[in-house]
Design a protein that fits this description.
7 helices; 7 strands; Rossmann fold; alpha/beta; 7-stranded parallel β-sheet
Length: 225
């Protein structure tokens, strides 16, 4: 039986878009007879015993699906730590497929594809994983994983994303490798040029509000003084 290991690399753990994506895909795989295990990287790094368990799970699986957010164009610290541990252990990973899924809070998917995915490429090649493709997801915050929402709960707003994850699950089930994908995850109107400025203004106003609520000044320029 094919075993698929989902590693959730978000520091938010179960309340994250990464976890929501992972559970959705895992349930699809389980329904088709595949065995899945889901581990929260942050929790597994909490002790040597759990870390060893995670590395053992990696060695004994057929495929690793690593799902994590984009932080400053790069992987979160806990994911970098995991990658370092895997590299240091020098495991035989040539028969194990590796597929990263990266989601960003911003709408420019190039922030993922230009840096984060190439880093995962280099990591996989260095440690010996068999690259099985990747998925770059824009505006991951829209899927409300931080509020504990799961994909089936999101209604029509997540129809396109669910379809993308369904196709990814089908590829895993059939044993087909994927290309490095960066699909549009929202209705076409969201990509119209005429709407770029209004959306940017809405986003800017949101961050100004958040800054004010936390006692900060979004227009502060302390280094000009």
């Amino acid at each position: 039986m094919t075993k698929v290991l989902f590693l959730i690399g978000s520091p938010r753990g179960k309340k994250s878009t990464s976890f929501s994506f992972g559970i959705y895909i895992a349930e699809k795989l389980q329904g088709n007879g595949l065995e899945t295990t889901t581990l929260i990287v942050r929790s597994q790094l909490a002790s040597e015993e759990k870390t060893s368990q995670m590395l053992k799970e990696i060695e004994e699986t057929n495929m690793v699906v690593l799902i994590a957010p984009l932080y400053d164009d790069c992987q979160p610290y806990i994911v970098i730590k995991l990658m370092e541990l895997i590299a240091a252990k020098k495991m035989n990973l040539e028969e194990i497929k590796f597929l990263p899924i990266v989601n960003s809070g911003f709408g420019e998917v190039v922030q993922i594809t230009a840096v984060s995915i190439p880093l995962y490429h280099k990591f996989a090649k260095t440690v010996g994983f068999n690259w099985a493709g990747s998925l770059a997801v824009e505006v991951g915050e829209m899927f409300q994983g931080r509020y504990g929402k799961l994909m089936p709960e999101l209604g029509k707003t997540a129809n396109i994303m669910r379809g993308i994850l369904d196709n990814l699950a089908d590829a895993i089930i059939s044993g087909t490798d994927l290309p490095d994908m960066a699909p549009r995850t929202f209705p076409r109107m969201f990509y119209w040029k005429i709407l770029k400025k209004p959306f940017a203004k809405i986003n800017t106003n949101h961050w100004r509000k958040v800054a004010k609520e936390n006692g900060e000044d979004a227009d502060a320029r302390p280094y000009l003084e």
